[in-house]
Amino acid sequence: MKPKTVAVAFASGLLFGVGLLLSGMADPAKVLAFLDLAGAWDPSLILVMGGALAVALLGFRGVRAGGTTPLGEPLNLPTATRVDGRLVAGSLLFGAGWGLAGLCPGPALVRLGAGLPDAALFVAAMLAGMALHRVVFR
Question: Transmembrane segments in this chain: where (predicted)?
């Protein structure tokens, strides 16, 4: 990879991580309060998710037309368009894990990088699940 590409990837990851921390998406208690529709629901993360979706839609719309990233790298978008059992099962597992732990992969890695010990167990379980998937499905 080109040094400029690595620098942009690093800056993007850093911005993403800081955004997760500032928005509260890396705080499991805040995420669980957002998911608790029948209890003390905290709707504030809707704005975070809506803002992220808007930025992503604008970004993808802009680069999709040219077929390359702003740095001139080829744009590799998924080609699958079918909703199948594996997609649904994976989505259910992701949602169940998010609802039980209040974490998903991005915030878990941010918490791990911040030295928070609760993230180590989550990331270890996530990596074990990825390895298990590789063994079972490949």
Answer: 43-60, 87-108, 120-137
Q: What is the reported pTM?
A: 0.79
Report the C-alpha dihedral over residues 47, 105, 78, 75, rounded to 10 degrees: 80
CA distances from 19 to 26, 73, 95, 102, 120 (A): 9, 25, 21, 17, 21
pLDDT confidence of residue 89: 93
Please report the pLDDT score of residue 73 as a whole number: 83
Residue with structure tokens 């878990």?
108
Q: What burial class does residue 108 get, using C-beta atoms within 10 Å of its C-beta: 0-12 exposed, 13-18 middle, 19+ buried?
A: buried
Please list the ranges in the chain whose pLDDT falls under 50: none
Percentage helix, strand, coil, to 5, in the chain?
70, 0, 30
Distance between CA atoms of residues 125 and 49, nearest Å: 25
Tell me which residue of 105, 137, 99, 138 sits closest to 122, measured CA to CA: 105
* Domain ranges, ordered by start, for the chain: 3-137
Q: Which residue, among 6, 9, 22, 7, has the nearest Cα to 107 in the 3D structure?
A: 22
